[in-house]
From TrEMBL:
This is M20 family metallopeptidase. It holds the Pfam family M20_dimer. Residues 189-278 form the Peptidase M20 dimerisation domain. NCBIfam families: amidohydrolases (TIGR01891). It comes from Deinococcus arenicola. Signal peptide: none annotated.
């Protein structure tokens, strides 16, 4: 075991304590007041870091290296979700209706661990390491966008990396992939305006439920017939509300949905494809509509050479048995905002295990992590900090 590995292993108790404190005290996006105060206080116990608050609930720690090199941004997201936790362990959420169900408590503990290691050995890293504890990943327009657009966080940043724990991978496994990694999660809101009437006399009404049902099924025609099979596109109508009782045809139906793509060209074309179907179906049946379409986070496209570096780091850090080429996912991530400004790559660290019952999906009320994954995360980001700050 190297000296670095030994130090990291000693951190284990501390990592678990941080993670459990955060897990017990979750806060949703833009409201991370206690969370950010806790992070700031812990960082201020560490020597040699400059700690600031770029926004009200985010925290930045900067470590200046001893020799010239690159400036690297490491990112952890810190927000929780509006979910009622169903876990019963002693560090379950104390905040009713709020839960760390995505692993951001783990991400925060991991980055605190990296800050501690770096602060204990400031001479070992060249360049500059910026560690951003980012607010509001789970809620649009997202904390990353605010940090990138409204603070100087990215000024002078050469490279960026960060990780997401994954309950779908075995604890301790690292997965990286070059190129497209996560999709752009865009949104639609649709109102179909019909004409209400008596349930017994649909001929005198324009039934927005019947029209809406046609719209829902016809939208899938775009996916299966309108776009090439090898070009990923998901359209999901996730909310459909209409009517109040059994004998009244309602006036209108409202729907919400999500549209996921990787390719920016397809992303830009999607609103037109979707509206053409909605308009066609509504015209055919005498209904009208109002469509609101909103672009969410950009697709997350890893820079190939940075992903290759992370793969090499993973092979050295966890070994080939615990490395896997990551699969792309249609999930979204506002880490993509940083990649608009600097090359970089995002990767996964497995947190699933049967022993710790941590294979529940992300955003599930039983979600939790195998805490062994915290050490893996620290080792990966610490090694990345040493390697990626090296001068070119
Ligand atoms: Zn999430
Ligand atoms: Zn997440």
């Amino acid at each position: 075991m190297t000296a670095t590995q030994e130090r990291t292993t000693e951190l284990r108790d501390q990592l678990v304590a941080w993670r459990r404190h955060l897990h017990m005290n979750p806060e949703v996006g833009f409201h991370e007041h206690e969370t950010s105060a806790f992070i700031e206080a812990e960082l201020k116990k560490m020597a040699g870091l400059t700690v600031t608050r770029p926004t009200e609930t985010s925290v930045l720690a900067v470590l200046e290296g001893s020799t010239p090199g690159r400036t690297l941004l490491l990112r952890a997201d810190i927000d929780a979700l509006p979910i009622t936790e169903e876990n019963t362990f002693e560090f379950a959420s104390k905040n009713a209706g709020v839960m760390h169900a995505c692993g951001h408590d783990g991400h925060t503990a991991i980055l605190l661990g990296v800050a501690k290691l770096l602060s204990e050995n400031p001479g070992e890293v060249p360049g500059e390491v910026r560690m951003i504890f980012q607010h509001a990943e789970e809620i649009g327009p997202g904390g990353a966008e605010e940090l990138v657009m409204e603070t100087g966080l990215m000024d002078g940043v050469d490279l960026v990396t960060g990780l997401h724990l994954s309950s779908q991978l075995p604890a301790g496994m690292v997965a990286v992939k070059p190129g497209p990694f996560m999709a752009s999660p865009d949104m639609l809101e649709l109102t179909i305006q019909g004409r209400g009437g008596h349930g017994a006399h649909p001929e005198e009404a324009v039934d927005p439920i019947a029209v809406g049902a046609q719209v829902v099924t016809n939208l899938q025609h775009i996916v299966s017939r309108g776009v090439a099979a090898l070009e990923p596109l998901v359209i999901s109508i996730t909310s459909f509300h209409s009517g109040t009782t059994h004998n009244v045809i309602p006036d209108r139906a409202t729907m919400l949905g999500t549209i996921r793509t990787f390719d920016p060209e397809l992303r830009n074309r999607a609103p037109e494809l979707i509206e053409r179907v909605i308009k066609g179906v509504c015209d055919a049946h005498g209904a009208t509509y109002e469509l609101k379409y909103e672009f969410g986070y950009r697709a997350l496209i890893n820079t190939d050479w940075v992903a290759e570096q992370l793969k090499e780091i993973a092979l050295e850090t966890v070994g080939p048995e615990l490395f896997r080429d990551a699969k792309p996912t249609m999930g979204g991530e506002d880490f993509s905002a940083y990649l608009e400004k600097a090359p970089g790559a995002y990767f996964n660290v497995g947190s699933g295990s049967d022993e710790q019952d941590s294979r529940w999906p992300h955003h599930h009320p039983r979600f939790t992590i195998d805490e062994d994954s915290l050490e893996t995360g620290v080792k990966m980001l610490h090694a990345a900090a040493l390697r990626l700050t090296m001068p070119e």
